[in-house]
Amino acid sequence: MRSFLFVPADSERKLAKGGESGADAIILDLEDSVAAERKAGARATALAYLQQHAPETKRPRLVVRVNALDTGLTDADLDAVVPGRPDMILLPKTEGGPAVIHLDAKLTAREALHDLPEGSIKILALATETAASLFLCGTYRDASPRLTGITWGAEDLSAELGAETNRDADGRFTSPYMLARNLSLAAAASARVQAIDTVYADFRHMEGLRAEAIEARRDGFTAKMAIHPAQVAIINEVFTPAADEIAKAQAVIAAFAADPSAGVVAIGGVMYDRPHLTRAERLLARTKS
């Protein structure tokens, strides 16, 4: 998956538009984009959307962002949407592996209640929205087989830190948020799950989005969040391996397959070692996901 599009779960119109965006995953948001007095209605709208679209064979992945564990709203969110069989739950303000374990237990109970296969609903962790969460990024590994991706966020974190802004005059994240970004990337690598870059909030600035997505892919992220359907096409383009990259990866894999005991192979006068093989295998895996 390359693109994850946030859509307020209380808007049928925006949900319909999001489904037509080309995003690989639609995030039905019950958290920040829904006012407190509209959350009950948003849960009902989300369930109706899931019940309509989950049975379809050709569709984006359906993700629900619930409210954080410390809000007292998570159980009501899960009670409402699990019967609709979402593919994933996005947990905001996740504070390390213990929070994932906590959510896993809640999902296991509800899957049993609704005759769903245990483990069928996966977990995405939003790993850097609190100061405490930064110190727990190393605790995701082996927390739960449900964990399938880790992403990060800067808005809630900047509020907690008391920052005036989280980007500089050129639109680049300042150092505290680059730290959060890099910790989330390392957390995903350690847990062997997908690393998903955060949103680019200025949805009218497409070149800024493209540049940030390219930097994210360079560093190891394999997908990016979006807040507007117009961002999806650029994100999909950036995170789709190009034909020449695929060909190079195939050549590296073929060279090692021809000489399984080799630590290094030569292709066109260039030497490739085992880390190059790992990167090639991961790139080809992305073309099949």
Structurally, the number of domains stands at 2
Low-confidence stretches: none
* Strand segment tally: 10
Provide the helix percentage: 40-55%
* Separation of the first and last Cα atoms: 6 Å
The total of helices stands at: 11
**How are the strands of the largest sheet arranged?**
1-2-3-4-5-6-7-8
Question: Gist?
Answer:
By secondary structure, the protein is α/β, with parallel strands linked by helices. It is built from eleven helices and ten strands. The strands form two sheets. The protein has an eight-stranded parallel β-barrel with strand order 1-2-3-4-5-6-7-8, surrounded by six helices.
Verbal overview:
- This protein is an alpha/beta fold.
- It folds into two domains: 3-238, Phosphoenolpyruvate-binding domains (TIM Barrel, Alpha-Beta Barrel); 243-288, no CATH class.
- It is 45% helix and 16% strand.
- It has eleven helices and ten strands.
- It has helices spanning 12-19, 39-53, 74-81, 96-113, 131-134, 155-161, 175-191, 206-219, 232-238, 243-258, 274-288; strands spanning 3-8, 25-29, 61-65, 88-91, 122-126, 147-151, 194-197, 223-226, 264-267, 270-273.
- It has an eight-stranded parallel β-barrel with strand order 1-2-3-4-5-6-7-8, surrounded by six helices.
- The longest helix is centred in the middle third of the chain and has 18 residues, at 96-113.
- It is globular, with a radius of gyration of 20 Å.
- The model has no long low-confidence stretch (mean pLDDT 94).
